[in-house]
Amino acid sequence: MSTAVTIYSTTWCGHCRRLKRQLDDIGVPYSEVDIEDSVESARRIEAATGGYRTVPTVEVGERMLINPSVIEVRDAVGAAS
Length: 81
Prior knowledge:
By secondary structure, this protein is of the alpha+beta class. The chain is built from three helices and four strands, in the order E-H-E-H-E-E-H. Strands 2-1-3-4 form a four-stranded mixed beta sheet, sandwiched between helices. The longest helix is centred in the N-terminal third of the chain and has 13 residues, at 14-26. The mean pLDDT is 94.
């Protein structure tokens, strides 16, 4: 069973686009949530980041990674598996 990966992002975030492209390149599947379309998700991100809407924020299992590198996401997926 694979670990669920969710990327919280916005349409205008260049770091988000780069991270998604890198995850695609290494074959890590993810779902994406635009925090500008989801008030509930925006509040979750604010709670995880000390009141900021920092994107990308990536949820791997129960872990929240704030503006992670592709290596950090890959390692978190491996640790959660």
